[in-house]
Specification:
Largest sheet: 5 strands, antiparallel
Shape: elongated
Number of helices: 8
Number of strands: 10
Radius of gyration: 39 Å
Helix content: 40-55%
Strand order of the largest sheet: 4-3-2-1-5
């Protein structure tokens, strides 16, 4: 009788061991093979859904904030601040709203995309077993270095966002930003472009804008100081000024420019050459300068017609006396 081959028994037991361990391995690693990819897929789908919903919400909110109200569309005087500063020029107001909506929507959408992407990437790395601690520490150091190096750039972008959200000024507004005074031609997240009176184009970083004077917000005021001689009757002067202002408002050429009847505020100051009387009127935005020039012309003609003298500078001349040699003074008109 022959003895069994030990090597054959060993090979047979090895095959049986492999056949027995393959299902066990699959069972033990089913979470890695199926669960991890499934969770990653769910994370990607969830992040995509969150991004789509966030973008839709941003579009809806921006559209709701920037679109004009029914009151402003009807041409009524706005009750508060808002994007209808240029309500008397519908085309420029629409261009301004579209620019703000496009810029704000783009920035918010980019922020949502970056935040969702970073969160999704972190969750995916956690699923594949990569430690997030060292990565977060490295990202923090890099972000800190970038923040110190580009802090002025970050300030420009944040200031630009606030300028647009608060509607401090927009395209077509006449503003005073300090050294730069003129009409706004472009408002971006980093730069504001101003065209001054001489045609020069100013590029101002938004982070450097500390205060703004906007001459285009809802209404403006034309203020005119008229100097008359001390011998003039002030009641007559005030009556002439009121009549000239009322006739100007009734002129069809200036319809819509003057929002109320001009008001004589009274004596503003007593100067060396005459009495200064102030007249003011509320006007439409950006119309105050033209109204002031026309009102000045009408006031001059009305005062001349009423016989009211407009003073001119006086000059004192000292004359040596003939008898005792003491000087004498005389006030004579200065040459025109």
């Amino acid at each position: 009788m022959s003895l069994p081959d030990p090597s054959a028994s060993y090979l047979l037991s090895g095959d049986m061991q492999q056949a027995m361990t393959a299902p066990d391995w699959l069972r033990d690693n089913v979470d890695t093979l199926v669960g991890v990819p499934l969770r990653i897929l769910l994370i990607v789908v969830a992040m995509a859904i969150v991004r789509v919903l966030a973008k839709k919400g941003i579009k809806h909110v921006v559209k709701r904030i920037l679109e004009p109200s029914e009151e402003r569309e009807a041409g009524a005087r706005p009750s508060g601040r808002g994007p209808a500063v240029l309500q008397r020029d519908r085309s420029r107001a629409q261009e301004r709203r579209e620019q703000r909506a496009r810029t704000i929507g783009s920035v918010l959408s980019s922020i949502v995309t970056v935040v969702v992407g970073v969160m999704g990437a972190a969750m995916v790395l956690d699923q594949v077993g990569i430690a997030l601690g060292p990565l977060l520490a490295s990202a923090g150091v890099v972000g800190l270095a970038i923040g110190f190096g580009a802090q002025s750039l970050v300030a420009d972008y944040l200031s630009g966002m606030l300028i647009m959200l608060e509607d401090q000024y927009g395209v077509g507004d006449s503003v005073d930003l300090g050294e730069a005074i003129g009409e706004v031609e472009h408002v971006g997240l980093r730069l504001t472009q101003i065209r001054d009176l001489n045609g020069g184009l100013w590029h101002i970083r938004n982070g450097e804008i500390l205060r703004v004077r906007n001459d285009s917000q809802e209404w403006a005021r034309a203020v005119l100081d008229v100097s008359v001689a001390y011998e003039s009757n002030l009641d007559t002067v005030c009556s002439v000024l009121e009549t000239a202002g009322r006739e100007m408002r009734e002129d069809p050429r200036f319809e819509g420019m003057l929002l109320e009847d001009p008001s004589v505020w009274g004596v503003q100051s007593l100067d060396a050459d005459g009495v200064l009387v102030r007249i003011a009127v509320k006007t439409a935005p950006l119309k105050q300068w033209g109204v002031t020039r026309e009102l000045r012309r009408r006031v001059k003609e009305a005062l001349e017609a009423a016989g009211v003298d407009i003073p001119f500078p006086q000059r004192t001349v000292w004359v040596r006396g003939d008898n005792d040699g003491s000087p004498e003074s005389a006030s004579v008109p200065a040459p025109r």
